[in-house]
């Protein structure tokens, strides 16, 4: 019998040690750490009692008892804490502290048993009986500790029963924990019944409880978070989930499936839910729609494989009833939005054409007056006409630019440009405006800046023009200044632009409103100042497209300054020199010199507006190019049958046959003598996407009305046969 007990105790030690090894292989978390501690304590407790079985006297026996209690004093407390946390119960920190404190006191009393006879009041060693053993007479602390152990074991068992009831179904993991927590009670029963004289069964039964839970951990993957997560996900899914075997037999369904799919509760495990051939359905398409009880479901079927064998299907039913309604509503809203957007685009195109067409005539004919008139008062009137027409054109351009930015179709197009030329244009444009208001217009430019840069000079001009326009408009006396400086940064230059005025200034609380579209500051005080309220918003958006930002500083009643930094590529690093000296030498009178002549060149101009044709011809008079102008698409087709031209300018919106249709017919004509001739779309339609639309339709280039003299000449120099061009520079 003694040999059996020794072997049994060795098995308990090895079993607890195996449990420790098992726990070291689990995913590390708080619960697995607690169980690892319990396993170590079980090894120490049973190893200590194994030593006690081999003891020969009271000294050896009490050494073994001390080792045994190093584990045994704490095991039930650790198991109680683990059971509470595993079952989702919270133990007060003070209670935990009291229990561990009592365990520590018991251990101290065991180690100093000679001086503290309150746990064991008397210790003796006897050699009679089945084997030599200690006789330990219990003191008062023993019964206090026993009550704590009984409380802990009963509490652990109660936690597991409550957790099992909350789950709504049998949980082998929870029940195994509950059973293992009361195993030591069987050991106490054996001791009090004296079934084996001298043998303490408590350590062995505590070890059996630990080993039993180890078996459950190994078989049911208690600490495998993936399995637990899968179960929790299935239970808490918002979608209905039905699991069937490969033959369509019912396996499991979550609560949502039982709630949404009528009649599902009547099926037992293995009973066929799906009568169709599932494999054929799901092999061809793993998604279809299903209706039940007034609801529409999107059904996803996922195959379940086990060792490459199809064992079933996890079928997810997504309630798409509301989604389908929303999709239908969104389709209607989208159609209405597209219709409204199309109407807006058509309106902008029509507005652009209808307003730009007469402005083109006004500016064009006025340009002829400026070039040909010798009377000073007539020239003065013409300059007033030009200024007003350009202001009107600026308003239209602001509206169209705002539309482009709003739709995300505004682009920055970089190219080489003469920096000095841009500054000269701005000086010429605003020096006259400032002079008319009695203002001083100062331009200060760093003479060391590069002369030729790479960037979108048109958009930079637009931003600076907007800032200078506002500075002149809102300054009643004093000075408007443009200051340009910069510094080299590798192959680039970082330019610093500053526009300063001594105008009315802006209140600090009004600065955020400055960049809002269609909003003007202090409207009641500035009713006499024209403007749409779009210029500053457009300037800000353009600068952001160029990766910079517009800054503003202002003192109300004293003036404002706007500034921004802009990186530009350097094409020619030669310094621009003194801008002030060139400005002083600039001609005060309006002069014009064509950049080329082409007396042998022949152009066909197609435009239904007679005045516009006269303007076009007048703008190109100095180039000496031969121009044939006609008033309709039909006349255009007749002319290209009879003669070859070097270029064709074709208006868009014409009666009977517009420019798009004329272009289409030109491409289809067999007897067209101008098949390889560049065709330029000449139109007042400058809305977002217009240029792309014309190029896609087959046009070679695009020229917007009112016609810009420089752009017209640049375009002709690009497309006109080079041998017919004679440069004037």
Task: Describe the fold and architecture.
This protein has 729 residues and is α+β, with helices and mostly antiparallel strands. It has 4 domains: 226 residues, Up-down Bundle (Rhopdopsin 7-helix transmembrane proteins); 83 residues, PAS domain (Beta-Lactamase), CATH 3.30.450.20; 175 residues, Heat Shock Protein 90 (2-Layer Sandwich); 132 residues, Rossmann fold (3-Layer(aba) Sandwich), CATH 3.40.50. The chain is 51% helix and 19% strand. It contains 22 helices and 21 strands. Strands 8, 9, 10, 11, 12, 13 and 14 form a 7-stranded mixed β-sheet that branches. Strands 4-3-7-6-5 form a 5-stranded antiparallel β-sheet. A hairpin with a 2-residue loop joins β6 and β7. α4 packs antiparallel against α5 and α19 runs parallel beside α20. The longest helix has 52 residues. The termini are far apart. About 1% of the residues have low confidence.
Features:
single chain; 729 residues; alpha+beta; Rhopdopsin 7-helix transmembrane proteins; Beta-Lactamase; Heat Shock Protein 90; 4 domains; five-stranded antiparallel β-sheet; elongated
Structure in a nutshell:
This protein is α+β, with helices and mostly antiparallel strands and 729 residues long. Helices cover 51% and strands 19% of the residues. Strands 8, 9, 10, 11, 12, 13 and 14 form a 7-stranded mixed β-sheet that branches.
């Amino acid at each position: 019998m003694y040999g059996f007990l020794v072997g049994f105790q060795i098995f308990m030690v090895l079993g607890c040690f195996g449990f420790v090894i098992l726990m070291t292989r689990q995913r590390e978390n708080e619960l697995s750490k607690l169980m690892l501690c319990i396993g170590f304590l079980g090894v120490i407790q049973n190893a200590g009692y194994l030593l006690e079985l081999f003891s020969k006297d009271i000294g050896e026996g009490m050494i073994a008892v001390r080792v045994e209690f190093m584990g045994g004093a704490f095991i039930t407390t650790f198991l109680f804490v683990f059971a509470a946390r595993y079952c989702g119960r919270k133990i007060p920190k003070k209670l935990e502290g009291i229990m561990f404190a009592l365990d520590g006191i018991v251990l101290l009393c065991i180690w100093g048993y000679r001086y503290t006879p309150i746990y064991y009041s008397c210790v003796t060693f006897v050699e009679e009986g089945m084997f030599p053993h200690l006789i330990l007479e219990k003191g008062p602390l023993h019964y206090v500790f026993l009550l704590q152990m009984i409380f802990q074991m009963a509490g652990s068992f109660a936690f597991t029963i409550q957790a099992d009831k909350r789950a709504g179904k049998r949980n082998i993991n929870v029940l195994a924990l509950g059973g293992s927590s009361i195993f030591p009670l069987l050991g106490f029963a054996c001791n009090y019944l004296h079934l084996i004289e001298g043998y303490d069964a408590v350590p062995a039964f505590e070890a059996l409880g630990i080993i039993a839970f180890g078996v459950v951990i190994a078989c049911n993957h208690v600490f495998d978070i993936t399995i637990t997560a899968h179960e929790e996900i299935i239970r808490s899914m918002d979608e209905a989930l039905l699991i069937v075997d490969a033959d369509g037999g019912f396996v499991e369904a979550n609560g949502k499936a039982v709630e949404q799919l009528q009649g599902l509760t009547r099926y037992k495990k293995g009973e066929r839910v799906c009568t169709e051939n599932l494999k054929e359905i799901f092999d061809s398409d793993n998604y279809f729609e299903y209706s039940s009880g007034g609801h529409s479901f999107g059904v996803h079927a996922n195959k379940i494989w086990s060792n490459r064998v199809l064992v079933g299907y996890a079928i997810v039913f997504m309630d798409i009833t509301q989604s389908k309604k929303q999709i239908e509503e969104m389709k209607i809203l989208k159609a209405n939005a597209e219709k409204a957007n199309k109407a807006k685009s058509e309106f902008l195109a029509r507005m652009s054409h209808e307003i730009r067409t007469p402005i083109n005539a006004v500016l064009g004919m006025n340009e002829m007056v400026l070039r040909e008139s010798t009377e000073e008062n007539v020239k003065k009137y013409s300059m007033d006409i030009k200024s007003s027409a350009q202001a009107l054109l600026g308003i239209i351009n602001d509206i169209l630019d705002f539309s482009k930015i709003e739709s995300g179709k505004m682009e920055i197009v970089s190219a080489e440009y003469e920096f000095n030329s841009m500054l000269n244009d701005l000086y010429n444009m605003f020096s006259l405006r400032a002079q008319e208001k009695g203002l001083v217009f100062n331009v200060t430019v760093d003479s060391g800046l590069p002369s030729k840069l790479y960037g979108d000079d048109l958009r930079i001009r637009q931003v600076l023009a907007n800032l200078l326009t506002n500075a002149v408009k809102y300054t009643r006396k004093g000075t408007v200044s443009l200051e340009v400086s910069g510094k080299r940064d590798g192959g680039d230059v970082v330019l610093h632009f500053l526009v300063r005025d001594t105008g009315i200034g802006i209140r600090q609380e009004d600065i955020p409103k400055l960049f809002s579209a269609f909003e003007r500051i202090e409207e009641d005080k500035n009713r006499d100042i024209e403007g749409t309220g779009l210029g500053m918003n457009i300037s800000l958006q353009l600068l952001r497209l160029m990766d910079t930002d517009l800054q503003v500083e202002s003192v109300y009643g004293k003036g404002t300054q706007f500034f921004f930094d802009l990186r530009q590529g350097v094409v020619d690093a030669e310094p621009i020199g003194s801008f002030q000296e060139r400005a002083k030498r600039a001609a005060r009178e309006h002069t014009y010199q064509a950049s080329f002549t082409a007396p042998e060149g022949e152009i066909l101009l197609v435009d239904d507006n007679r005045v516009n044709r006269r303007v076009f011809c007048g703008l190109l008079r100095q180039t000496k190019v031969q121009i044939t102008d006609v008033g309709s698409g039909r006349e255009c087709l007749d002319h290209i049958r009879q003669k070859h031209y070097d270029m064709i300018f074709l208006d868009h919106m014409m009666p009977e046959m517009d420019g798009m249709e004329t272009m289409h017919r030109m491409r289809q004509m067999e007897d067209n003598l101008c098949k390889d001739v560049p065709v330029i779309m000449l139109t007042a339609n400058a809305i977002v996407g217009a240029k792309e639309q014309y190029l896609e339709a087959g046009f070679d280039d695009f020229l917007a009305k009112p016609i810009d003299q420089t752009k017209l000449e640049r375009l002709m120099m690009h497309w006109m046969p080079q041998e017919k061009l004679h440069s004037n520079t």
